[in-house]
Amino acid sequence: MRVRVLIRPKKGILDPQGQAVERALPALGFDGVSGVRVGRLVELDVEDPERLGEVCEKLLANPLIEDYEIEELTPAGAEAR
Amino acid sequence: MRFGVVRFPGSCDEEDALHACRRFGEGELLWHEDREVRGVDAVVVPGGFTYGDYLRVGAIAALSPVMAAVRDFAREGGPVLGICNGFQVLCEARLLPGALLPNVGLRFTCREVEIEVANGSSPFTVACAPGRRLTVPVKHFTGRFHAPARELDAIETRGQVVFRYAAGQNPNGSERDIAGVSNEAGNVLGLMPHPEHASDPLTGSSDGGLVFESLARWVEATGGTVPVGSASPGWSPATAGRHTSSAVSA
């Protein structure tokens, strides 16, 4: 199964990267953009989706400072090649 | 007194750390693939950019074979000092509470700072006079210490804040000016400033040498492990007998 893991700074965690992006946008004429948060995206093929949570908790994200979200890109069994 | 300094691919401060160790004892390098710490009395996890710091700083190094050995060593009460990237590695390995985030100013900061000894009975500070200030350099991009507010309160109450940036000296936005923090048992310390770069009069300040001198003295006085279940000289009564780090089970 191909999955996408979206990792972002937890709510309440100061994200200076997001702030820097937000402050740069008006220079390009993009006004009215706020709440910018910068995270990370990881795509991977997994044989055992059951263990994906563990993969995220133990390596892909640091649960103390980051939230993650798992998106299925292809459902199990749909990858016949 | 034998110090072991871990070298990972991407370490860059291990030679200075060795130099600092050898001023107060013997020092040798451990390798990231080692499965044991070779009977050393203290382990130093030095600064650098382990494994390119891919994914998150310290995240890959925390899973290296040597860190499993370091974890066992720490569980048995052996002293472990993580400096800069070493601090990040120990947090990722959950041997220390909290996490390090990018500096508030989004700048790589490289300068001398003043830090204050906040806990003078730690194995890493016993050679420091109470309230001693140390002048040591910082050089990092990801040094903002963060932990949830409730955990910060607990860390403070238990005396786990070992070093604090002096007023107006916080270079990265660390919460509560925390520069160095220990585990609950007190035998694992991480700090962002670099005592090893300020351990020789040649480099200006030699204040950082006190951290290595403390370790050497502490090992000599105690035999080198945290006593379980009893307080002893040079040991914080608040932490004696509580041998399991909350960070490990968190």
Secondary-structure map:
The complex is a heterodimer of chains A (81) and B (250).
Chain A: E1 2-9, H1 16-24, E2 40-45, H2 52-60, E3 66-74
Antiparallel strand pairs in A: 1-2, 1-3
Chain B: E1 2-7, H1 14-22, E2 26-31, E3 42-45, H2 65-75, E4 80-83, H3 85-92, E5 99-101, E6 109-117, E7 133-140, E8 144-146, H4 149-157, E9 161-165, E10 178-182, E11 188-191, H5 209-222, H6 246-249
Parallel strand pairs in B: 1-2, 1-3, 3-4, 4-11
Antiparallel strand pairs in B: 5-8, 6-7, 6-9, 9-10, 10-11
Description of the structure:
The complex is a heterodimer of chains A (81) and B (250). Chain A is an alpha+beta fold and 81 residues long. Chain A has helices at 16-24, 52-60; strands at residues 2-9, 40-45, 66-74. Chain A has a single domain (2-74), classed as Phosphoribosylformylglycinamidine synthase subunit PurS (Mth169, Chain: A). Chain A is 22% helix and 28% strand. The two termini of chain A are 13 Å apart. With 250 residues, chain B is α/β, with parallel strands linked by helices. Residues 228-250 of chain B have low confidence and may be disordered. Chain B contains six helices and eleven strands. Chain B is globular. The chains are: A alpha+beta (81), B alpha/beta (250). Chains A and B meet through helix 1 of A and loops of B.
Summary tags:
A: 81 residues; alpha+beta; Mth169, Chain: A; 3-stranded antiparallel β-sheet; B: 250 residues; alpha/beta; Rossmann fold; two-stranded antiparallel ribbon; 11 strands; 23% strand; disordered C terminus
CATH topology of chain A: Mth169, Chain: A
The first-to-last residue Cα distance of chain B is 33 Å
Oligomer status: heterodimer
Helix content of chain A: 10-25%
Q: At the third CATH level, what is the topology name of chain B?
A: Rossmann fold
- Give the C-alpha Rg of chain B: 16 Å
| CATH homologous superfamily grouping of chain A | Phosphoribosylformylglycinamidine synthase subunit PurS
Percent strand of chain A: 25-35%
Tell me the name of the CATH homologous superfamily of chain B.
Class I glutamine amidotransferase (GATase) domain
Structure summary, number of beta strands of chain B: 11
Mean pLDDT across the residues of chain B is 91
Total helical elements of chain B: 6
Total domain modules of chain A: 1
Number of helices of chain A: 2
